[in-house]
Design brief:
The chain is mostly helical and about 150 residues long. The protein contains 5 helices and no strands. The chain has one domain. The longest helix is centred in the middle third of the chain and has 23 residues.
């Protein structure tokens, strides 16, 4: 029991010392790793339960991001917020596709988007010494239904 309390304390202390961007990046990376673990262990007997939990977790993170991004006083430029919101709609759609028909290949884009967004959140603008990672193309408009524009 003491070990569990100690781990919770360490986690709380880490979160306290992290910026909002770092917390968001960490959450996205952890979600990506959970999804990747399901993908890499596709034939595991408990795959369905672990996959559902990983997808639910990812969906919760993206729902929180959506709620933050629609705030008028959000510091990101409007166009960037709209682009990320479009990605979130794609994430939702792909998540439901995977839930309806589970195939490991459909998880790759969820993992890549999470990791790329996390890399962008962790990127320090003043430092250009090393690349952040591969930039993903936005999903084609026909794949993303959106109502963000009036």
């Amino acid at each position: 029991m003491y070990a569990t309390q100690l781990e919770e304390y360490k986690t709380t202390q880490k979160l306290k010392d992290m910026s909002g961007r770092e917390i968001e990046a960490s959450a996205l990376m952890q979600a990506a790793f959970k999804i990747r673990d399901c993908q890499n262990n596709w034939n595991a007997p408990d795959r369905d339960a672990r996959l559902n939990e990983a997808l639910r977790n990812n969906q919760q993170i993206w729902s929180i991001l959506q709620g933050e991004l629609v705030q008028e006083d959000h510091p990101l430029p409007k166009q960037v917020r709209e682009d990320i919101l479009r990605l979130s709609i794609f994430i939702d759609k792909r998540t439901f596709e995977v839930m309806a028909r589970s195939v490991p290949e459909k998880l790759t884009i969820l993992i890549e988007i999470n990791l790329n967004l996390a890399a962008g959140l962790n990127h320090k603008p003043a430092s250009h010494s090393q690349p952040v990672g591969q930039v993903l193309q936005m999903p084609k408009k026909e794949h993303v239904a959106t109502s963000f524009r009036a």
